[in-house]
Design goal:
- The complex is a heterodimer of chains A (282) and B (431).
- Chain A has 282 residues and is an all-alpha fold.
- Helix content of chain A is 76%, strand content 2%.
- Chain A has a single domain, classed as ABC transporter involved in vitamin B12 uptake, BtuC (Orthogonal Bundle).
- The longest helix of chain A has 37 residues.
- Chain B has 2 domains: 233 residues, Rossmann fold (3-Layer(aba) Sandwich); 170 residues, Rossmann fold (3-Layer(aba) Sandwich).
- Chain B has 14 helices and 17 strands.
- With 431 residues, chain B is an alpha/beta fold.
- In chain B, strands 2-3-1-4-5-6-15-14 form an 8-stranded mixed β-sheet, sandwiched between helices. In chain B, strands 8-7-9-10 form a 4-stranded parallel β-sheet, sandwiched between helices.
- In chain B, strand 5, helix 6 and strand 6 form a beta-alpha-beta unit.
- Classes of the chains: A mainly alpha (282), B alpha/beta (431).
């Protein structure tokens, strides 16, 4: 019984990070209707940002979000308005290729800048553990990342629901033509959406850096997880992403290190066969 | 209808990503497009410059400069009655076995290299040497456990390999376990952690058998795919069985995840022996102080007692030179092997006196020289592979002046390799 509960705990903690990895990608898919193949690299840039800043400034990596989130938000807006909006006129395939090219360029740039060394954001509580009754345990680090993930997704949900910009984004997502008739600037909305997606990648990068070890080339691994989460959750649905992240995380833990990946991706195929639009798609 | 179209695009994109990643690798060569002029001797080299194995491929540009520079400084090598310089053509494998094959093929077909170097873990050595065999190009293979390479093909006719066997590394680990207080026959419980890739499987087969034979208790949670982010079930098993020793060979992310979870779950082990991720300073730095006390095998160190018969440089001099030219970075172990591979390649041409492929292969077969990694003579056979065994010693990561440093604590297998310190008990799981 203890083993089962421990698995559930670890699965939920892991799943929250998976949801965080997928949320930015899901948003871009839902709003801009673009498969952003550079999302993995965005996450790794966030991871480098937090890891190196916390080393340089001697502060907890979480505090570096104050810098990385706005910087990546602006970078996202620029990438969308300067680069992707231009090619989106020709349809979504050229835009897809742009993100693919971006992914390669960013990966190589990271390698050039930071060498191939494995990195990890070290925190004082990296090995601290909360002991619960019956031999259960929760790693403090995992709990912190869990809290960050939930907070990010909650803030994002509230933003989309209650602010003018959030409503504009949702309106554009529902019906681009109608939204632009109502005076919403579609290009600007796309820019902001990419900015937000990149800001979530900054937070996801922090999670990756704190929980795991990463290289310049690690983006692909996380992109794949994000893909899985987005497909299961339903593209563009934020609550769907959260639920899908948890499902994906639990599947991985229940399958164990040996078969976890296999089971997660079998689940993905099953999902595509039975309900291809995802759990929460409109 | 629109949704379906989008979904199809989405999946196509995922598939394309894999395909395009493969294509993207083709343009990365240094000597690409150069015609086979015959003025230089061409040596092909597939190197993992980016990707998870990039730490192994570090320093390749420096190595090429050193060896090409050496040959130039002695006025070239005399082959077929003419002095020629060497040209080392490097392609990046991106740590991907498929790209390794493509690049090796390109070296053989388009660049028409005279010899090919297969180096840096079985993931590179196996696909590259397979192409060398296919095209009949002499191949200096080095730095991948002999068992993994020998098991990959029935017969090797062009490939000559140098490294240690997994039986040897097992002996080395046993010696480290003994030093840590867990002698054979003591019934100590050994938990093993191996990925299901070529390297992990080769180790897994030998370790699971020998551990039991030597009177230890084997705790085997099964192999797992590299890149696993959660090890809950394995940690649970280690915890329930109360293991004394953790042994394995893993890439840094895998070991980092497993070790973190073990510490969080309160698994206390008296001894950790770990290959691969605990070899390089760059990788160990990512683990942070958790790496302190971890034991590993050492195949090359600047303190080793060898002197290159070709260039006359000693291990100490080479290590110093590397640090000086690379901003103070310590020379990584695999770079030592990279140097040795190129030494062997040049030596083969000197001995053959020609670039004729059969003659170069025969020169490799008869090779009897000393490189920076020790004496090389291809006098052993495993399956269809002719190989030479290279030295191995036991090391421990210790804090020296606030920096994790690999100290050689055991030379029982090759006493000529000097130790640089003593075993210090303890590791991160006991804190």
């Amino acid at each position: 019984m203890t083993v089962v509960i421990q698995m559930l705990i670890n699965g939920i903690l892991l799943g929250s990070v998976y949801a965080l990895l997928g949320v930015g990608m899901s948003m871009i898919f839902g709003i801009v209707r673009l498969t952003n193949l550079a999302h993995g690299e965005f996450i790794i840039i966030g991871a480098y940002g937090s890891t190196l800043l916390s080393l340089a400034l001697g502060v907890d990596p979480i505090l570096t979000l104050v810098i990385t989130v706005p910087v990546m938000f602006i970078a996202g807006v620029l990438i969308q308005t300067v680069l992707i909006n231009r090619v989106m006129l020709q349809g979504s395939e050229p835009a897809l290729l742009v993100t693919f090219g971006l992914s390669i360029i960013l990966k190589d740039a990271l390698l050039l800048l930071f060498t191939a060394d494995a990195r990890h954001a070290n925190v004082p509580y990296s090995t601290a553990t909360i002991r619960l009754p019956a031999g259960l345990h929760i790693a403090v680090l995992d709990l912190v990342v869990f809290a960050i993930s939930l907070a990010t997704i909650l803030i994002l949900t509230l933003f989309l629901r209650y602010t003018y910009m959030g409503r504009a984004i949702r309106a554009t997502s529902d019906d681009t033509a109608a939204a632009s008739l109502m005076g919403v600037s579609v290009r600007r909305t796309y820019g902001i959406a990419m900015g937000i997606a990149m800001a979530t990648a900054a937070v996801a990068g922090l999670g990756v850096g704190m929980r795991w070890t990463f290289y310049p080339s690690s983006g692909g691994d996380y992109l794949l997880i994000a893909f899985g989460v987005v497909v299961i959750g339903g593209m563009g649905s934020i609550p769907g992403t959260l639920v899908a992240g948890l499902i994906f995380g639990l599947a991985q833990v229940i399958g164990g290190a040996n078969y976890g990946m296999l089971i997660s991706y079998l689940l993905l195929i099953l999902m595509l066969a039975v309900r291809p639009q995802g759990l929460f798609s409109k | 209808m629109k949704k379906k179209g989008i979904l199809a695009l989405f999946l196509t994109a995922a598939l394309c990503l894999g395909l395009l990643a493969g294509c993207a690798g083709q343009g990365g060569g240094k000597g690409a497009g150069k015609a086979s002029s015959g003025d230089t001797i061409k040596i092909g080299y597939v190197n993992p410059t980016i990707g998870p194995l990039a730490g192994n491929g570090e320093g390749i540009d420096w190595l090429i400069k050193e060896i090409e520079g050496y040959v130039k400084s002695v006025g070239g090598i005399e082959v077929d009655g003419k002095k020629k310089n060497i040209e080392i053509i490097v392609y990046d494998s991106q740590s991907d076995t498929t790209i390794c094959t493509e690049m090796a093929q390109k070296l053989c077909e388009e660049d028409k290299v005279d010899l090919i170097v297969a180096i840096q873990t079985p993931e590179t050595v196996i696909p590259v040497s397979a192409q060398a065999e296919r095209y009949g190009v002499p191949c200096v293979a080095i730095q991948a456990p002999v068992n993994a390479v020998a098991g990959a093909a029935e017969k090797y006719e062009w490939t000559y390999h140098a490294f240690w066997t997994i039986e040897k590394v097992y002996e080395q680990y046993k010696s480290l376990w003994t030093i840590a207080g867990y002698a054979p026959g003591s019934g100590a419980k050994i938990g093993i952690a191996f990925a299901n890739d070529a390297d992990g499987t080769a180790w897994y087969n030998i370790f699971t058998q020998k551990i039991v034979e030597d009177g230890y208790v084997l705790v085997d949670p099964g192999q797992y795919p590299s890149g696993t982010t959660d090890f809950t079930n394995i940690v649970n098993k280690f915890k329930a069985e109360k293991i004394d020793i953790l042994a394995g060979t893993n890439i840094p992310p895998d070991f980092g995840n497993l070790f973190n979870q073990m510490i969080a779950a309160g698994v206390e082990v008296g001894c950790v022996t770990m290959g691969k991720c605990c070899l390089l300073e760059g990788d160990v730095a990512a683990l942070g102080e958790k790496a302190e006390g971890i034991l590993t095998e050492v195949w090359w160190a600047p303190t080793n007692p060898y002197k290159s018969a070709l260039t006359g440089i000693t291990c100490a001099e080479l290590g110093e030179k590397y640090s000086k030219d690379n901003g103070g970075r310590a020379m990584p172990q695999p770079a030592g092997y990279g140097y040795a591979a190129l030494e062997l390649a040049v030596q083969a041409f000197i001995n053959a006196g020609t670039t004729k492929k059969e003659a170069v292969r025969d020169a490799l077969k008869k090779m009897d020289t000393t490189t920076i990694v020790g004496p090389i003579k291809y006098d052993k056979q495993m399956g269809g592979l002719t190989y030479c065994e290279t030295v191995i010693s036991g090391g421990q990561w210790q804090m020296v002046d606030g920096k994790l440093t690999l100290i050689i604590i055991d030379n029982s297998l090759y006493p000529e390799v000097p130790t640089t310190g003593k075993y210090v008990p303890g590791n991160a799981t006991q804190r």
